[in-house]
Specification:
- The protein has helices at residues 2-11, 13-16, 19-39, 41-50, 61-81, 92-121, 128-147, 155-174, 189-222.
- The protein is built from nine helices and no strands.
- By secondary structure, it is mostly helical.
- This is Membrane protein YpjA.
């Protein structure tokens, strides 16, 4: 009984959108974003030196996802300070940030964990960093799903983010700028590409389902 009450409280909007929770997640994700870009720094420099310069925008997948989740939290924090919450008149920009946050955070959160697990299954040595990355990326996927019900995006932002996400997959695997993989997975690149594209599609569908669920809830409220 108590466990049910605790879970209900942790799931509640009042708890998740409280100042303490929002600021804690904002700072944690901001720190993770900075760390993520540092993690990709070697590949960014390699891409800059060996590929067209504009390719670097498509290199740091996970930190860009966490950056947009951080920005989505900023919108929720601004809502708390406003007497007229921003979600009353959702903008395309805010919707794009939120849709990008949901789709890419879920996608790359699951993707990174899957790659670590697949590498380990084929004999790639693991260390504490792999454990840290597994926990942090699972957290990325979980928090994206947890906060998606508070988002305000509509269909246009989903379409725009879907285009970016699928184009990013094309850039990664047709132009060779995918996140560096363990050596044991290099001969499985075709399977990794198909898994990545499939995960993109699943993530886009999830964003659409959240939108439809939100619309359905509003219609029930009206009636």
């Amino acid at each position: 009984m108590r466990q049910g009450l605790v879970l209900s409280m942790l799931w509640s909007k009042s708890f998740l959108t409280s100042s303490v929770v929002l600021w804690t997640l904002f700072l944690v994700n901001l720190a993770g974003t900075i760390y993520g870009y540092q993690w990709y720094s070697e590949q960014l420099w390699y891409t800059w030196d060996n590929k067209p310069g504009w390719y670097i925008w498509f290199v740091p997948d996970s930190p860009t996802a966490s950056l947009f989740f951080t920005l989505s939290l900023l919108y929720l924090l601004l809502d708390r300070r406003s007497s007229h919450p921003l979600d009353k008149k959702p903008s395309v920009l805010r919707g794009f940030v939120e849709a990008f946050s949901l789709i890419t955070s879920f996608k790359y959160g699951i993707w990174a964990v899957a790659m670590i697990a697949a590498g380990a299954a084929q004999g790639n040595p693991t260390n504490w960093q792999d454990g840290m990355l597994t926990v942090s990326h699972l957290g990325m996927a979980a928090e994206a799903l947890l906060f998606a019900r508070f988002y305000t995006y509509r269909m246009l932002p989903i379409v725009l983010v879907a285009g970016w996400t699928l184009w990013n997959d094309f850039m990664d695997y047709q132009n060779g700028i995918f996140p560096w993989l363990p050596e044991v997975l290099e001969d499985d690149l075709g399977a990794v590409e198909m898994f990545t594209i499939s995960l993109s599609v699943v993530s886009i569908i999830i964003a659409i389902l959240y939108l439809l669920s939100r619309r359905s809830a509003k219609q029930k409220t009206i009636h």
